[in-house]
Amino acid sequence: MNTVIPIKYEWDVVNIRSKVREMAKEMGFSELDQSRIVQSVSELARNVVHHAEEGVVRVESIEGDKPGIRIVVQDFGPGIEDLDEVIRASESLVSTEGYGLRQVRDLMDDFAIRALEGKGTCVQVTKWLNAPAVKSEE
Prior knowledge:
This is Serine/threonine-protein kinase RsbT. The chain is α+β, with helices and mostly antiparallel strands. 41% of the residues lie in helices and 28% in strands. The chain has one domain: Heat Shock Protein 90 (2-Layer Sandwich), CATH 3.30.565.10.
């Protein structure tokens, strides 16, 4: 099950959220994981609308021994000038720059980002079905 959804306008984010939630539900993700997946794709799609004007979201189900859902968000904007700086800022608890990326990284199991200045940014995230629960520090 693979879906490609264009992003250009703010209302596209609503459509993307709905389609991704339905896919995650059909795949058997818990309501909590559905919410994590939808929040992540929503943040990434909003970034496209606000920073790049247009792009695409590709959602694919991963079958086999380790099932999951992979979301690739590719924009066709200016790219991130200094990706390393944005990543560093996103890891800081005091900076608001890159906060959305940090949030997505925390909500999903796998996170990768690459940017080509002047050509766009691509973020790939994966949520594994039945992934072990994260242990909280006591």
